[in-house]
Amino acid sequence: MHSSFCPPQRTLMGPGPSDVSPRVLAAMARPTIGHLDPQFIHLMDEIKSLLQFAFCTRNQLTLPVSAPGSAGMECVFVNLLEPGDTVVVCRNGAFGGRMKENVERCGARAVMVDSPWGETIDIDAVEQALKDHPQANALAFVHAETSTGVRSDAQSLAALASRYGCLSIVDAVTSLGGIELRVDDWGIDAIYSGSQKCLSCAPGISPVSFSDRAVARIRNRKSRVQSWFLDMNLVMGYWGGGSKRSYHHTAPVNALYGLHESLLILHEEGLQSSWARHKNCYQALAAGVDALEINLLVDKSYRLPQLNAIEVPEGIDEAAVRARLLSDWNLEIGAGLGELTGKIWRVGLMGHSANQKNVRLFLSALGSVLAASGWERKVDISQSLAAAANVFNDAEINR
């Protein structure tokens, strides 16, 4: 006999989705109205304005794609690339690899600049690739590599793209709202993100933004965009602004209620405060993990505060630990991908999940599970919690 699905109450500290704010869940439960209703069109304009705030941009073509972050990625590539184009693609994790897939499916050539997983993108190697391939018309890179917890220097890479006459294409799925990101100031041409990471909205929406240079590229294409649904030439008519909108697709009305509420929460907190909160929670978590004598994979200078790659101690079954955290503590963390499978845990501190309570919960739960697993080292949970508390206390004193 089938019945309504009632999910368990979990704490989501994996690579996404993050915990959704109760305000967002409540917003999504409001009455559905038509996607061309004048009230909904007003909401669309507000969402555009709030996305411009979040991206730090005045780009007119800034909108939420009605699909998850992977569709946002595809949207950017299919609109900007044509068969025969050359794109320099930076790969230092799983999502740089997905960029390569998108480039090739557009009929373009991907020139790869590879860095080891867990390392940041090598700026000098990128510049050499641009010198070696003067025909390249785009540079693509991941700002916050979710598979490794690495932050790359988006500002320098975008400047490099501009210097060599390329459009910059940026994956900001995990960075938007969690770390500094300034689309206009850094000269980023095309960027995409996701609703389920640091925005703490339900999965299923992908904010994107295109500069005037990128829009000119879209309008002056020699061939039609290969995807009808993601063709910005068509979508512009629906999200372009004003009361008269051309029908393109039925927008996910209630999901956009949720996105609007999540962006409103970010606006109320302020970008600088949000970035600082994520950093503070990461520093406390890192101090607590260090007190357990466990290492973080990524060098401090380019770690992501919102996605922490924690090395699995020798002799520990990483999957068994994750399973125990879920079954005994209702706590979800992520496994490693690709080259890092079985070697790391990915612990997210994103949006609504980035708070002191979750840091303490994670440290207590991990310490307890490791102690119960027969780990040869002595597990001192109180010392780990004290280390985290010191970081939080220092932040309060210095505020």
UniProtKB/TrEMBL annotation:
Protein name (Swiss-Prot/TrEMBL): Alanine--glyoxylate aminotransferase
Example GO molecular function: L-serine-pyruvate transaminase activity
Family: Belongs to the class-V pyridoxal-phosphate-dependent aminotransferase family.
Record GO biological process: glycine biosynthetic process, by transamination of glyoxylate
Modified residues (N6-(pyridoxal phosphate)lysine): 197
Binding site residues for substrate: 346
Keyword Transferase attributed: yes
A Pfam match: Aminotran_5
Keyword presence, tRNA-binding: no
Cofactor: pyridoxal 5'-phosphate
Organism of provenance: Pseudohongiella spirulinae
Family annotation (InterPro entries): Aminotrans_V_dom, Aminotrans_V_PyrdxlP_BS, PyrdxlP-dep_Trfase, PyrdxlP-dep_Trfase_major, PyrdxlP-dep_Trfase_small, SP_NH2Trfase/AEP_transaminase
Residue ranges occupied by any Aminotransferase class V domain in the UniProt entry: 32-336
Sorted UniProt keywords: Aminotransferase, Pyridoxal phosphate, Transferase
